[in-house]
Amino acid sequence: MINSTARAHALSQVCLLLTCRPFAAQFIVLGPDHPIVAVMGEDVVLPCHLSPGLNAENMEVRWFRTQFSVYVHLYHSGQDHYSSQMPEYQGRTEILKEGISVGNASLRILRTRLSDEGQYHCLIKDGDFYEEATLELNVADPFFTKDSPWMAALFATLAVCLASLVIVILFVLRLRGEVRIEQEGIWATKTPLN
């Protein structure tokens, strides 16, 4: 029979294992505290990383919008999984795996669409422990971005065209006015033959 000292020692070891396991796996998932801005049609990276920078290669990294089960991208056990990926993201997402060994679980969305705009959740799970970060993606139409060189060129071209049109119209009106004056002058000086 096991004596009470051995039983107490075994019980303390079990308690130590049960209490230490979750603390060893704890981390914080961090994302940006400001919206990410993307230009429609271009690629965008949604930042997400662990603190401390633990190796996440064997953890689950799940990016989703509103429903946990239908995901934007799922990575676990060292592989990407696409079985329940949202159809609108198929072939357009990837985890930046070059940083996953140091806790970087950032997601790249290829060929950004206006429909990609909104809230994203980056959930990282290790065993039973998980944390998540929420971030916002804003997608701008490339034609209407604030500092777009195309917008400046468009406005400059429109201004030149408008000014040219006004000048041409004024010239034609003046030319017509001069022709009428000359015709009136000719008719006025013409004398009848009697």
From TrEMBL:
The chain crosses the membrane at residues 150-173. One of its GO terms (molecular function) is signaling receptor binding. This is Ig-like domain-containing protein. GO terms for biological process: regulation of cytokine production; T cell receptor signaling pathway. It is found in: Membrane. PROSITE patterns: IG_LIKE. Residues 22-138 form the Ig-like domain. Keywords: Immunoglobulin domain, Membrane, Signal, Transmembrane, Transmembrane helix. It comes from Buteo japonicus. Residues 1-25 form the signal peptide. The keyword Transmembrane helix applies. Its main location: membrane. GO terms for cellular component: external side of plasma membrane. The keyword Transmembrane applies. SMART domains: IG, IGv. InterPro entries: Ig-like_dom, Ig-like_dom_sf, Ig-like_fold, Ig_sub, Ig_V-set, IgSF_BTN/MOG.
